[in-house]
Amino acid sequence: MVKSLDGVLTKKANTRETFTEQQIADLQSCTQPETGYLYFCEKFFNIQHPVAGKMLFSPYEYQQKLLNSYHDHRFNINMLPRQSGKTTTAAGYLLWYAMFIPDSTVLVASNKHDGALEIMQRIRYAYESIPDHIRAGVVAYNKKSLEFDNGSRIIAQTTTANTGRGLSLSLIYMDELAFVDHGIAKELWTSLSPTLSTGGKCIITSTPNIEDDQFAEIWFTSNKLTDEYGNETEIGPNGFKPFFADWKSHPDRDDDWAKAERNAVGDDKFKREHECQF
Q1: Of all residues in the chain, what percent carry a pLDDT higher than 90?
Q2: Do the beta carbons of residue 110 and residue 176 sit within 8 Å?
Q3: Per-position b or e across 209-227, b if 16+ CB within 10 A of its CB
Q4: What is the pLDDT of residues 72-85, one digit of tens each?
């Protein structure tokens, strides 16, 4: 074990290890290309609950579907409500992706600097609690980036017109794209498209904002789910798989919660942030 620059424990890179049969089985289950991400998230991904503290991630039904969508499709756009666990779900998938798909570059782009750091903090918290037989060794470890000994790295940046420029991206996660300045978002998307066209994955997640921003443009096009012959399709003509959930998808929320929240934030804000209406 070595200490990172931030003083937290990480696994030393490129070390010989001895495994038990159960540890080998766990590692093999995490590396399965079709189901490894679910096994990892349900068995080894710890989260920091605001009340209960450290606990193993137990995804809700909609979070399991969201994880499946992330994995099964190259391009994902997700319309999701506030405070619904979308950041936690993304953190688990991104960490699995970087540790079990070698030589990957994962970019986390958020509309605010603090948002990017928050996602990275969840990734770091989870990494620090994973047993050594599962987690990758660390080459570099700080608040804005993680580099593993399998050649993969996770980088966090604020969303600007130059975000990701110069990087060969395997996966980009864009958080709250609807709240990035429209001109910046459009220029960013133009600059990223050539990178994604070479095989990279893209996950866009946001609550809605206005109907004519870059997020809305991608969202509405992705929801045109019929081909030229009138047949139903899973993805839109832009290649994106749309995924929608509102507050009703959260199992701990009911009509009483909705009434109290609507009274607290107002009807317009409730419709946008929890019912996901533009």
Answers
A1: 71
A2: yes
A3: beeebbbbbbbbebeeeee
A4: 999 999 999 998 88
pLDDT band at residue 3, thresholds of 50, 70 and 90?
very low
Distances in Å between the alpha carbon of 101 and those of 11, 95, 244? 18, 10, 27
Query: Do the Cβ atoms of 165 and 195 come closer than 8 Å?
Result: no
Q: Distance (Å, rounded) from C-alpha 62 to C-alpha 12?
A: 36
Q: How far apart are CA 235 and CA 203, in angstroms?
A: 14
Tokens of residue 174, six digits: 């864009």
Q: What is the pLDDT of residues 104-118, one digit of tens each?
A: 999 999 988 888 899
Residues sharing a CB contact under 8 Å with residue 157, sequence separation 6 or more, in sequence order: 107, 108, 109, 116, 144, 163, 164
Buried-state track 182-192, b at ≥16 Cβ within 10 A, e below 16? bebbebbbeeb
Q: What integer best gives the mean pLDDT of the chain?
A: 91
8 A C-beta contact, residue 173 and residue 38: no
CA Rg value for the chain: 19
Instruction: In whole angstroms, give the CA distance from residue 151 to residue 139.
Output: 9
Contact predicate 165/105, CB 8 Å: no
Of the candidates 200, 206, 195, which has an alpha carbon nearest to the alpha carbon of residue 171? 200
CB count within 10 Å of CB 258 equals 16
Amino acid sitting at position 236: G
Q: pLDDT (tens digit, 9 = 90+) per residue, 8-56?
A: 578 989 888 899 999 999 999 999 999 999 999 999 999 988 777 899 9
